[in-house]
Amino acid sequence: MSAPGPAIPFGRDGSSRFLPALTLLMVFLAGLALAAVMDLERALARWDQSLTGTLTVELPAATGATDKSLDAALAVLHDAPGIKSATAIDRDATAKLVEPWLGTALSPADLELPRLIDVRLDVSAHADLAALRAKLAAAAPGATLDDHQLWLDSFARFARSAEITAIAILVLIGGVAVMSVAFATRTGLAVHRDTIELLHLMGARDAYVARQFERQALRLALIGGVAGLVLAAAALLALSQAANAVSLLGDSVTLLPPLHLRGWNWAVLAVLPIVAGLVAMATARITVLATLRRLP
Q1: Domain match, 158 and 31 both
Q2: FRET partner for 296 with CA separation of 20 to 30 A, picked from 25, 122, 206, 279?
Q3: How confident is the model at residue 2 (pLDDT cuts 50, 70, 90)?
Q4: What are the tens digits of pLDDT across the range 203-249?
């Protein structure tokens, strides 16, 4: 035996037909914003992990005393407490660091690049960076010590600002969705007022009528939400492919930042249609019960 259909003929209600399209758009935008938040968080954690426990010593650009300054700086670093290793980066490796911006037309000999020393800290010991900077300045005039904290702080501020903006967009999307479902539900109540009054005469309670609307809202929101999720996933994959395909100076500099979404990130995005359906269902129920209480 087939399950009984809804007591209210929603098929003749044109006002609710835009709800799947609206939910599609909301889930699509929410998926993009949420993916951006998760990718930014992962990028920040990756950069923080890769730079924690590292220092960079920069010596002035090539001069006649460059090698002596380099040897003096290395001697200071090797003798300093809390330093695990100190390795000079050769000119070819330094040139590769600026190759994405300058290209390969210039050779290392043509560039007056500073000499760099990659320093690894011993996490179990405490390195006095202030004293180390003073010793380096005395042994190799012009040497600078970069602990990457300024760069990390700037990147963290940018990432947090972008995350707050994306979260604000999610909240705005949710608010628009709630208002839209409420409007569609009130319109449906007006369209089916005669049927609802007949149900009341037959003994139906307000909760029964609310269940009819909330099931309809859930069904339509799930349809639109799944379609919006598919479009969001397609857009994210297309952006990821575009980031890998479009570049400047060969394959060195990408115009678009690559996306690095993991399995659990996709699982979070997959929940969006369910969340949209539950929000639509709850909104429809609250709207129906509140409206019916005000009716004579």
Answers
A1: yes
A2: 279
A3: very low
A4: 778 788 888 888 888 999 999 999 999 999 998 888 777 655 554 44
- Say yes or no: 248 and 143 in one domain: no
**Is pLDDT at 273 greater than 90 in this prediction?**
yes
Mean pLDDT of the chain: 77
CA end-to-end span of the chain: 38
Do the Cβ atoms of 44 and 156 come closer than 8 Å? yes
Q: In the chain, which ranges are continuous DSSP H helix?
A: 18-51, 66-79, 91-102, 129-139, 149-191, 193-201, 206-245, 263-270, 272-294
Give the total number of structural domains in the chain.
Answer: 2
Count other Cβ atoms within 10 Å, centred on residue 129: 15
117 and 220 share one domain = no
Is residue 43 within 8 A of residue 260, CB to CB? The reply is yes
CATH code: domain of residue 69:
3.30.70.100
Strands (E), the chain: 54-61, 83-89, 114-121, 144-146, 247-248, 253-254
245 in the same domain as 160: yes
Consecutive H or E run containing 213: helix 206-245
Q: Tell me: do 110 and 166 sit in the same domain.
A: no
Same domain, yes or no: 92 and 111: yes
User: pLDDT tens digits, residue range 94-141?
Assistant: 666 666 555 565 555 556 677 888 888 776 767 777 788 888 888 888
Q: CB-based burial of residue 194 (10 Å sphere; 0-12 exposed, 13-18 middle, 19+ buried)?
A: exposed
Token pair 């919006």 in the structure block, residue:
228
Q: Are 293 and 206 in contact (CB under 8 A)?
A: yes
Residues spanned by the domain of 136: 53-148
Entry pTM: 0.67
The string over 132-150, giving b where at least 16 C-beta atoms fall within 10 Å of a residue's C-beta and e elsewhere, is beebbeebbeebebebbee
**182 CB-side CA count, 13 A:** 12
